[in-house]
């Protein structure tokens, strides 16, 4: 069995700081093709400077239309780390757009 991430495209949300940012670096170091997503452009630029192989996308995930538009440009993804900093306490497969629209993004 091959558990290598080499060449696998992994999308990481919440990549601007903290766990998401470090995870992007780790995954890139393991050979993954990382797509780092954050609403904060500055930290993404710093991440790209540190790890030039990482693709960055700056988008506010609370904006459904903008999110769909930029993520539609990703031809495929082998994995998703949904790390954006929100906490909606509900099973993942039961989440709706309305849940996110009503979330207090602070």
TrEMBL record:
Alphabetically ordered keywords of this record: NADP
GO molecular function, one term: L-xylulose reductase (NADPH) activity
InterPro entries membership: DHB_DH, L-xylulose/Carbonyl_redctase, NAD(P)-bd_dom_sf, SDR_fam
Example GO biological process: xylulose metabolic process
SUPFAM superfamilies with a match to the protein in the record: NAD(P)-binding Rossmann-fold domains
Signal peptide segment: none
Gene3D superfamilies, alphabetized: NAD(P)-binding Rossmann-like Domain
Family the entry assigns: Belongs to the short-chain dehydrogenases/reductases (SDR) family.
Record-given protein name: L-xylulose reductase
